[in-house]
Structures are given as structure tokens and as C-alpha cells.
Write a structure and sequence with these properties.
By secondary structure, the protein is of the alpha/beta class. Helices cover 43% and strands 12% of the residues. The longest helix has 25 residues, at 130-154. The two termini are 51 Å apart. This is ATP/GTP-binding protein. Keywords: Membrane, Transmembrane, Transmembrane helix.
Length: 798
């Protein structure tokens, strides 16, 4: 019987089967996204699709990402910039004072060189008429402009403006620029405020230049000309301050129309918009591209649709230069028949009912926060969005933090949502294991919801993961039952189970239920005798030999059967009477289904009154997952298991299996309140097995020590300042030193600075325990391809 992870129905009600790959029927009215493709994204899906997503370091939110400008500041830069500004300004004022007094040698040589000689009295620079007067005024203005430019360059004024003004957030940036603009206007138009001071040579040179160019002294008789010049001069003075203060941006933000994200880098002028599907057109499929463009621009296509179609295209044409003809024809035909609804998920959903995080389905990222603007973070990532995707989840992630730190709401749920969106796009399969009532998404977000112990649960758990091999089923069943017991050898336990499961399956064509298996493990004579009698036929000789070996071992001091039976007793309770029976009328979910389908599964474990049973089921699901994903050839999509609470679920074998997942296109996300919930012998191997580690605020120093060891050290440059007392030899100097000590209360000293490189911990256990603000976490990432990001401080509220 082809079950694909489902069997029959319970209570006469037929449940929805595990989704099967099938060609869906296009809905009459496809749903629009429940929110824009990103909370900070554009209004239309076409704009969202066209937004650049440049390559970035692991963990960087790529949507609209713009690499920062190179860091220009160093320690003490502010002081040096101020000193440079002051010195250059003083030199400029001194030069201008000498210029106004006529004390600069050859001051008027250039003026007389470029002007007619009849404008001046012979042997002097005294003007004869209005032309000479206007020429001197224009000359003063040109020199003043050159002086301002020179002072700015010598004093590094542009760097200082960027350091003190441009770096500030709005509206502080605009306010500072506005204050400076008002000051400049006062010096340009002092008469407007009734001030009896000499204006800067800005307006007068413009008026004189106009008079010289026109050659008409009466040009200023027209009020329109004067008013126009006033406006132009004022705008010219204000323009640099508007650029510095970002006034246009401030106005848009004040009106609520600004896009509150880093400015997106402009696309090259010759790059076609993504809304026209250039990759399809490059392959000669203009008709399919036109159809998809029409669907997108008309609003009938969601962001998930775009991601799903793009994934289908990559699958059909891995090499766009030489696509496979059959796959290409199938792609074009499916697009022609279904349009935006092509390759819809077998559930028929094209989007999640609700989203609580910001997602980018096109690259599979979910934004979990923002890298803090902290000195401990590299300059290049400060303020950038922090994101997770299958490329980093494929190395598995370990999150440690106390209850209330935000593991579930700020990490587990966004990741579960992102993988669920990936499943709708045909790229992911996700299994979420959590306590009943945990807010990890509504039921209609998932294809299968399993509630062991709840009579209303439609689905069940297949303890044997739809296995036909007794040895394989026994291996992960033993891992789930006694993998955490140091006194029981898991391999011997697996052999014991195989000696019972194999004969039972050979006789009945299925594996036993929990009560039957428990009786066999306890050595029930009636059950073993009945099984032995059923295997009397010649074709069951090997299985009878297995059973005989088990019967001889039963009751021996090293027999793992009683321990296995004791653990099975946790599942052989009245609350689970209708569960875990392969031959019953239930509707079991098989973990093996995630290999074949992009499934979305949530398992709600009963916590109250069945804590041990819940831990056992979590261990079993983890063991099943690591076994079924080994066959990567049959699974083109990424598979992920999320354990919201992984306490007491990890074993030596499961830790080794987690390390192998990164080469199997699969990963796990583990949440722990404290690393003490993992046996001490496994703590080091666990940190080594996962590629991504996340420490939430509130961790203890004991937990922080493990993170510190995993993250290692780095070389940093330190400065040591030693103060040495100055001993004067001269009486006057000694008297001055005594007076200074009397005034300041400190002896006169000199500083000896020693700069050296030392090896320091990236994050100390004390920093992790006491320096993390609420709502923050330290996150380190690694990718399946070998990329990595050092531990960085993330603001999960950003």
C-alpha cells in the first residue's frame, strides 16, 4: 500500500492527505500578499522583484543592501578634524585680513593683467570709473571663493562635515545644517537683519559681474532682475547646506513617505527590469516571459509566486546557455497553462495566512534584526539587517538563552515562517517540534499538525518512519528510547529491537504497536511463543533464528530489553491509546515524507503530565530526521527540523549525525534555555557540530564560557599608557611644577605609550553574561560552502 506517510482515518473522519506533487488548478482570484514583500519594501511586487540583491557576507540582509563606504575614521579623528578646521580657519582669516588691507605682495597684478588699462589711473590700481570698481569687487569675490576652497581642503572640512553632521540621523542632521545655513545667510545679507557689518563678498561680486557682462549700468533699474538675483544667490548659498543636511530626505520622512531602509544601489542603465523576466528572454522564451510579466504587472502574482517560478526555471535550466529541451518545453507549457499559479504547492496555498517577520522569498532570507552600531561589530556590518537563510541553516544553528529572552518569538517563529514560505515555493521542507500552545504559527500555516495525546488530533506519529527495513527502524527507535542513558549501549538496544521487529514484520507485514512491542521486550512468554510459532515455516528460518537469539538473551544481566520496555511504558498510557499504532485506523505522519514533498509540519508535544514522553518523542523525531535525510539524491529541496526546546534530546549519536547534515542539504535549529540541559560530555562536540551559534541576553557565565571557547580568540591592537613623573633640574622649572601641582593636585607627568598586538577572546563569558542589552543576541554564522561570519551583536528588535 502506497502510504507516503499517511494511513487511513480515525473516528470515521478522513483527514487531508500529505500533499502530493500534482498539477494544481489555478484559483480564480489568487490572493495578494498579506503584507508587502517586506515591511520596508515597495508597494508593488514588480518593484520588490526589481530591487537589487547584491552578494553579501553571511547573515547580511541582501534586499536593497548597499555596502557602506570605507571607514574613514579612527580613534581621535574628531579631535584632529576640529584642530584642522580651527587652524585652517585662523590662517584663512589672517590671509583675508591682510588682503582687505592691501598688504599682500603683487595683490592686484592678476587684476590689471586681465582688465583694460584705461580702467585704472596710471601707476596705481585706483579705478577711473564704474568698470574698475566692479572689476575690483568681482576680483575680491573670486579670491574669496578660492580662499574658501583652499581653507576647506587644507582643513579637511568635507571630512569634518561628514563626521560631525552627515553621520547623524534625521532630524538632527537637518537641524545642524539649517543652523549653519542661517548663519551663512546672516553673513551674506547682514542688512536684512539691520546689522551694520560688512557682508561677505558673495552678493556684491554677482551684481558687479552682471553689470560688467551686460555693460548697462541701468540693468538694475528693473525690480524683477534684482529679485531674481536675490533668489538665485540665496538658493546658491543654501544648496550645499541642503545637500549636507539631507533636507529632501527629512521632508519626505516628515510626511511619512520615506522608505526607511538603506538606499538601494541603482541598477545599471542597460540592465532590463526583473519584472520582464530577462533570464527567460535570454533563453529565447519571450512568450513565457510576456505572460509572467503580464501576471506580475497586473498584480496577480505574489512574491512567493515569483520565488516559485524562479526556482522552477533554475530546475528546468540549470545551465541557461544549454537548457534541456524536454525540461524547457515542460516549463513553457506549464507557464502557458497556469500562469502565476504554475507549480502551486499541493495544498493550493500561494502565501501564508499571516506573517510576523520580514521575508525575501526570492533568496530565501528572513530578517531577524539589525547588526548593532557597536564598536565590537566590524564597521562594514553596523546598521545592516541580520538575516538567516538555508545556506546558513544547512550548517545547523544552536540558540541558548533563558526563558523570555526571545528564542521562540524572535528566532524560531521567523525561521519557521521563512521555511514555510520556502515550502510553498517548492524549495524547503520543515518540521517544527514544540510544546503545545507555543506560538509558532497558526494551524493553517502547516500541512500537517500532530498533537500526540489529543483525541481531536487528525494526524499521528509513525514511530517507524514508514520503514521496511527492521534494522533501520530499530536503529533510530533505540536512539529515541534509550539514547540518553549512559548505562545502556544504544547499539545493543538496536540489536535487541531488530531481533523483535524483523520477525514481527515478516509474520504480520507491519511493525508492532507500542503495547505489543513493550510486551515482547519484557519477555512475555505468550507473545514470544505466538511469534515463534508463526515463524515455523521454512521461509522464516532467518527470522526464527533472530527471535531465538532474543529469547536466549532475555533476562540476562546485560539485557537492554527492560530499559527499552520502561521507556516504551511512557508511550503506553491511556492518553496515547489511539496513537502510535501502525495497524490502527489513525493517520500517522511519517518523517520520511519530508524527503519526497516540500511539507510543512508542526508537532505539538504534550508537556503537562507527559514531560518524559515529550522528551522521548523529540529524541525520536530528531533521530528519524537524521536517518531519513541521508538519501539526498531523492530530495532536491532543503529539509530542516526545528526543536524549540531541545533539552534532554541530544545524544552522542545525534550530535554526530548533526555534523553530517551540512553535506546532505539539511539542517536543524536547536533551542536551549541553558547548555546545562545537555550532558557535559556532549557540550563541546555539540558546539563543534553546529555552524551557527547564538547567545541571547541573560545567559550565564557558564553558558558564556562554552561560546567563548567555540568562538576562539583574535589579534587586536592595544595601547598602554604609562605616566612618569617629571623631575626638574632648574629652580624656575621646579617652582612652576610645584605651582601646577598645587593647582591641579597632580604631579607633572609625561605619558609613555606602548602599542602592541595581543590575542584576546572575541566575546568573553563575562561580556555575554553581563553586557548584552535586552532584546539582543550575539550570533556567529557559517555557510555550507565554507563562508563564515564572526560573532556579531544583533539587535533583535531592529
Amino acid at each position: 500500500m502506497d502510504t507516503e506517510g499517511t494511513h487511513g482515518a480515525r473516528d470515521g473522519q478522513r483527514a487531508a492527505p500529505v500533499p502530493r506533487p500534482a498539477t494544481p488548478t489555478a484559483p480564480a482570484a489568487p490572493p495578494m500578499p498579506r503584507q508587502p514583500p517586506g515591511a520596508e519594501g515597495p508597494a508593488s511586487v514588480a518593484d520588490w522583484l526589481a530591487t537589487p540583491r547584491p552578494e553579501a557576507a553571511p547573515g547580511i540582509w541582501r534586499y536593497g543592501y548597499r555596502p557602506p563606504e570605507p571607514e574613514a575614521e579612527t580613534e581621535g579623528a574628531g579631535r584632529r578634524l576640529v584642530v584642522g578646521m580651527v587652524i585652517s580657519a585662523v590662517l584663512g582669516l589672517l590671509f583675508w585680513s591682510l588682503w582687505r588691507q592691501g598688504n599682500i605682495p603683487y595683490q592686484w597684478a592678476l587684476l590689471k593683467l586681465f582688465t583694460p588699462g584705461d580702467w585704472w589711473w596710471a601707476g596705481s590700481t585706483q579705478p577711473k570709473g564704474l568698470e574698475g570698481i566692479d572689476a575690483r569687487i568681482v576680483y575680491d569675490g573670486v579670491v574669496f571663493g578660492a580662499l574658501v576652497y583652499t581653507v576647506g581642503r587644507l582643513g579637511a572640512w568635507p571630512d569634518a562635515i561628514r563626521h560631525f553632521v552627515v553621520r547623524r540621523p534625521q532630524p538632527a542632521r537637518a537641524v545642524l545644517a539649517s543652523v549653519a545655513a542661517v548663519g551663512a545667510l546672516i553673513f551674506v545679507w547682514p542688512s536684512a537683519l539691520g546689522l551694520d557689518t560688512r557682508p561677505l563678498p558673495v552678493a556684491d561680486p554677482v551684481f558687479s559681474l552682471v553689470a560688467l557682462v551686460t555693460g548697462d549700468p541701468d540693468v538694475f533699474a528693473s525690480p524683477a532682475v534684482i529679485d531674481t538675483l536675490y533668489v538665485l544667490i540665496t538658493l546658491a548659498v543654501l544648496w550645499p547646506f541642503a545637500r549636507i543636511g539631507g533636507w529632501w530626505q527629512a521632508v519626505r520622512e516628515a510626511r511619512g513617505a520615506t522608505v526607511r531602509r538603506p538606499a538601494t544601489p541603482p541598477r545599471p542603465a542597460d540592465a532590463p527590469p526583473r519584472a520582464h523576466w530577462p533570464e527567460l528572454r535570454a533563453a529565447g522564451q519571450d512568450k513565457a516571459a510576456d505572460l509572467l510579466s503580464a501576471e506580475l504587472l497586473s498584480g496577480r502574482m505574489t512574491d512567493v509566486d515569483c520565488a516559485r517560478v524562479a526556482h522552477a526555471w533554475r530546475t528546468a535550466a540549470p545551465d541557461p546557455a544549454a537548457p534541456h529541451p524536454t525540461a524547457l518545453a515542460t516549463f513553457v507549457d506549464t507557464v502557458a497553462r497556469h500562469g502565476a499559479a504554475a507549480w502551486t504547492h499541493p495544498s493550493g496555498q500561494r502565501d501564508l495566512p499571516t506573517r510576523t517577520a520580514v521575508h525575501d522569498p526570492l533568496v530565501g532570507q528572513v530578517r531577524i534584526g539589525r547588526f548593532a552600531r557597536d564598536d565590537r561589530n566590524p564597521y562594514a556590518v553596523r546598521g545592516a539587517g541580520a538575516a538567516l537563510d538555508p545556506a546558513v541553516l544547512g550548517t545547523s544553528l544552536l540558540a541558548v538563552g533563558p526563558s523570555g529572552a526571545g528564542k521562540t518569538g524572535r528566532l524560531m517563529r521567523p525561521v519557521a515562517e521563512s521555511l514555510a514560505l520556502g515550502a510553498l515555493a517548492g524549495q524547503c521542507a520543515v518540521v517544527v517540534v514544540c510544546a503545545a500552545g507555543t506560538a509558532l504559527g497558526a494551524d493553517d500555516t502547516y500541512d500537517v499538525v500532530v498533537r500526540p495525546g489529543d483525541p481531536a488530533s487528525v494526524h499521528d506519529i509513525d514511530l517507524y518512519a514508514d520503514c521496511a527495513d527492521a534494522d533501520e527502524a530499530a536503529a533510530f527507535l533505540a536512539e529515541g528510547l534509550v539514547g540518553d542513558l549512559e548505562a545502556v549501549d544504544t547499539r545493543r538496544a538496536a540489536t535487541t529491537l531488530a531481533q523483535l521487529l524483523g520477525p514481527y514484520h515478516a509474520l504480520h507485514g507491519r511493525f508492532p504497536s507500542v503495547p505489543v512491542l513493550r510486551e515482547l521486550l519484557e519477555g512475555d512468554p505468550a507473545g514470544l511463543t505466538a511469534l515463534q510459532s508463526g515463524l515455523a515455516a521454512g521461509e522464516h528460518t532467518a527470522m526464527r533464528r533472530e527471535l531465538d537469539a532474543r529469547m536466549r538473551q532475555s533476562g540476562s544481566p546485560n539485557d537492554p530489553g527492560p530499559a527499552l520496555a520502561d521507556r516504551l511504558a511512557l508511550l503506553d498510557r491511556p492518553a496515547f491509546a489511539d496513537f502510535f499504532d501502525p495497524g490502527g485506523d489513525g493517520h500517522p505522519f511519517s518523517m520520511r515524507a519530508v524527503v519526497h514533498h516540500p511539507l510543512r509540519v508542526r508537532v505539538d508535544l504534550p508537556e503537562h503530565g507527559h514531560e518524559e514522553a515529550s522528551r522521548l518523542l523529540a529524541r525520536l523525531l530528531l533521530a528519524q530526521f537524521t536517518y531519513v535525510v541521508r538519501n539526498r539524491a531523492r530530495r532536491p529541496h532543503f529539509a530542516c527540523l526545528i526543536l524549540d526546546d531541545a533539552s534532554r534530546t541530544l545524544t552522542a549519536e545525534s550530535v554526530r549525525a548533526i555534523q553530517r547534515l551540512r553535506s546532505l542539504n539539511a539542517g536543524v535549529v536547536l533551542g536551549l534555555r541553558t547548555i546545562g540541559e545537555v550532558p557535559e560530555s556532549l557540550q563541546g562536540p555539540l558546539y563543534a557540530a553546529v555552524g551557527c551559534r547564538m547567545a541571547f541576553s541573560g545567559v550565564t557565565t557558564w553558558d558564556g564560557r562554552r561560546f567563548t571557547e567555540a568562538w576562539g580568540t583574535e589579534w587586536i591592537e592595544t595601547k598602554e599608557v604609562a605616566q612618569h613623573t617629571v623631575f626638574a633640574d632648574q629652580p624656575v622649572t621646579r617652582a612652576l611644577h610645584s605651582l601646577r601641582k598645587l593647582v591641579t593636585g597632580k604631579a607633572v607627568t609625561t605619558d609613555a605609550v606602548t602599542v602592541r598586538k595581543v590575542e584576546r577572546e572575541r566575546w568573553s563569558a563575562s561580556d555575554l553574561a553581563h553586557s548584552l542589552p535586552p532584546g539582543h543576541a550575539v550570533l556567529s554564522l557559517a555557510t555550507v560552502a565554507g563562508g563564515h561570519a564572526p560573532p556579531l551583536l544583533v539587535d533583535l528588535r531592529g
